[in-house]
Amino acid sequence: MPSYDTNALALAGGVGGAKLALGLAKILTPEQLTVVVNTGDDEVFYGLHVSPDLDTVMYTLAGIANPESGWGITGETFNMLERLSAYGEDTWFGLGDKDLATHIRRTDLLRNGETLSEVTAKLATALGVNHGIVPMTDDSLKTVVDTEIGSLAFQDYFVKHRSEPKANAIRFETDGGASPSPGFDNALNDADIIVYCPSNPYLSVAPILEVAGVRERIKLFSGRRVAVSPIVGGEAIKGPAAKLMAEFGVEPSCVDVAKQYVGLCDLFVIDDVDAGRANDIEALGMDVLVCNTIMNSDEDKTELAGKVLDFALR
Ligand code: FO1
Questions:
Q1: If you take atom 22 of ligand 1, which residue's CA is the nearest one?
Q2: For residue 133, which of 60, 201, 65 has the smallest C-alpha distance?
Q3: Cβ within 8 Å of residue 222, ≥6 positions away
Q4: How far is CA 285 from each of CA 98, 281, 282, rounded to the nearest angstrom?
Q5: DSSP letters along 50-104, please?
Q6: From the first residue on, what is the mean pLDDT of each consecutive set of 10 residues in the chain (314 residues)?
Q7: pLDDT computed for residue 1 by the predictor
């Protein structure tokens, strides 16, 4: 494994982002990598502050993520949820018994006045994660999906309604504006490369770019910016990206993901099955790397992370 002389800032949503973040964490030291995570999906459930994407990245790096779903903790049970349901609570959001401890601890620390960044660092350290996992902001910035059945908070859209209602628009609501978290701010100043993990460009990366000043700072970023497509062969590896693209009138393809990043990205990584689309992406002004981007095993994650770093640093 070559050692890299670089500082990387990775932008990640949930499951897909966490996979590449793990690959990067296996190659780069904690000093060399900051993973900035979408918090537009955060929600209060049963009185507890849940940060699904932060937890997915944290559990993945800690080696305890549920391998089937990609989110939640492996070997989970749902006794608490059953009891809550018996009390008449509508338990459509599945908080497992082990996962629950994370949300109780987070909520408690937030109520004591700690920031989400501080709380996340404490939780990650307790789980043995040494690489920096930071929320995009310590402020509130919520993803709202305007659909044919009305405006839905992200988890309402994604989990309760299983992404079924036709979406018209995606909006981000802040309570007086959202600034980058201190870790994000530092990484934007110190990083040599920015990696867009293969996360949904509309639901996971767009909220990160919505944080005050971030889009402009990434536009002006002097190092290389490299993105990995979450769309392979016209399908999203996971989640509703392809469905949303079709609803927004764009062809669900790696080319249209690249279009979202014009001016914000120099290098674009697509899967072997999309090799025929490389010219279309080059025409957008990005260099293209074609390779396997499907990350089933830890070896796949490390291999892709290595290729992404080699491509960015060549
Ligand atoms: N996704 C589901 O589809 N159903 C659930 O009940 C659910 C519960 C859940 C609990 C904690 C957590 O961290 C994530 C959870 N997710 C669930 C996943 C989550 O909604 C999405 O992965 C992200 O918000 C999108 O990246």
A1: 14
A2: 60
A3: none
A4: 46, 7, 5
A5: E-HHHHHHHHHHHT-B-TTTSSSBTT---HHHHHHHHTT----S---HHHHHHHH
A6: 90 96 98 98 97 98 95 97 97 97 98 98 98 98 97 96 94 96 98 97 96 98 97 86 86 93 98 98 98 97 98 96
A7: 66
Q: In a mutational test of the pocket of ligand 1, which residue from 71, 81, 90, 161 has the highest number of ligand atoms less than 8 Å from its CB?
A: 71
What are the Cα distances from residue 222, in Å, to 2, 16, 285, 311?
24, 26, 16, 16
* Contact of 293 with 228, CB cutoff 8 Å: yes
For 107, the token pair is: 């909520």
- Which residues make Cβ contacts (< 8 Å) with residue 74, sequence separation at least 6? 64, 65, 66, 67
Cα(72) to ligand 1 centroid in Å equals 7
41 CB contacts (<8 Å, ≥6 apart)?
Answer: 13, 14, 51, 52, 53, 143, 154, 155, 158, 203, 204
Cα separation, 92 vs 284, in Å, equals 42
| Contact criterion met (CB below 8 Å) for 107 and 52 | no
Residue nearest to atom 2 of ligand 1 (CA): 159
Report d(CA 314, CA 168) in Å as an integer: 40
Please tell me what DSSP assigns to residue 166: P
Greatest Cα pair distance, the chain, in angstroms, is 59
Report CA(290)–ligand 1 centroid distance (Å): 31
Q: 8-145+175-313 in CATH: which number? A: 3.40.50.10680
Contact 306, 27 (CB under 8 A): yes
The domains of the chain are located at 8-145+175-313
State the sign of the Cα–Cα–Cα–Cα dihedral 101, 107, 112, 117: positive
